[in-house]
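Audit log entry. Action: structure prediction of a protein-small molecule complex. Ligand: adenosine-5'-diphosphate. The ligand was supplied as SMILES and no pocket hint was given, so placement is left entirely to the predictor. Protonation state taken as written. Sequence taken verbatim from the request; no trimming, no tag removal. Recorded inputs:
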Amino acid sequence: MTRPIATSPPLSQTVFHVVTGKGGVGKSAVAVALARTLASQGHKKVLLATTGGDDGVSSLLKCQPLGRELRELVPGIWGVSMTGESAREEYARIVLKYDTVVRLVFGNPLVRHFLDFVPGLGELNQMGKLYYHQVSGDFDHIVLDGPASGHAVTLLTAASKVVSTVPPGPLSRDTRYIAELVTDPGRTAIHLVTLPSSMSCRELFELGERLAQKEGMAMGYLFANRMPAAQEAEVEPQFADDDAGRFLQAAWQQQTQAWDRVRGLAKRLGLPLVAFDEVSQPRNVVDQLVSNLEGLR
Ligand SMILES: Nc1ncnc2c1ncn2[C@@H]1O[C@H](COP(=O)(O)OP(=O)(O)O)[C@@H](O)[C@H]1O
Ligand SMILES: [Mg+2]
């Protein structure tokens, strides 16, 4: 594991962790590793949530599939697979307090149909649910296995986008609070995950710049996943002038370029870098990531 480039508070100081990046880069593996790391710190209660009805975590956590209802997945880690609709009803129940009102409003097919077409409402409701769990203090930490890049922007900016359009009342107040949560570095850390390929790094730069610079979000770590082993030597060693030597030289150069790319990316985004090795045993991916995170607790 590399030492972080920039300093960042220990993982345990942040309540709300969001993990995002392109599809397939290892977001769920990182989210599960974070949840396990945070839960291992002396009887801590951690909520591991997914959005859009996803469940990329149960196979990695080796537990029963996630459901719409919150439940303890493994000791210390609670999980829920949120959808816009399920979060909306639950959130309304919290805000409106009465089940009967919720049934009247949300049981009405016309209302439901209308609500499905309000842009950003599903995302806002899911953020609202997480916000509620943050302020209620039910959990010591919340880890969101976030959606991939573009959807993550929609989810994280949903509150700030609708805040000006909502009429005064409990919903407008909460919407403002949600917008404040994701921009507050005292509570939130949005972690980005990349692979070492140039395409992955380029795409992640765009996402990171958008979230940090344009939206002013509270950023966490840059996790470079599936990295080749770090180079010991500073300068290129002498390789033999034969096939084996040329093969070794190409491998050396590829490794160096991968490290240069992720270090450069971390620097440009101003994020502390943590690298995870490529794990050869798929079953042990999360264990390996957890052991890599030990120093950041
Ligand atoms: N460091 C790693 N080494 C080897 N395999 C990995 C590593 N990280 C993730 N994987 C594997 O890559 C696949 C995609 O990971 P996943 O966390 O599901 O990605 P995402 O959530 O971004 O779509 C999974 O099969 C996972 O086990
Ligand atoms: Mg996933």
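Audit: result stored. The domain at 11-85+134-291 is CATH 3.40.50.300 (Rossmann fold). The pocket of magnesium ion (ligand 2) is lined by residues 27-28, 56, 145 (CB under 6 Å).
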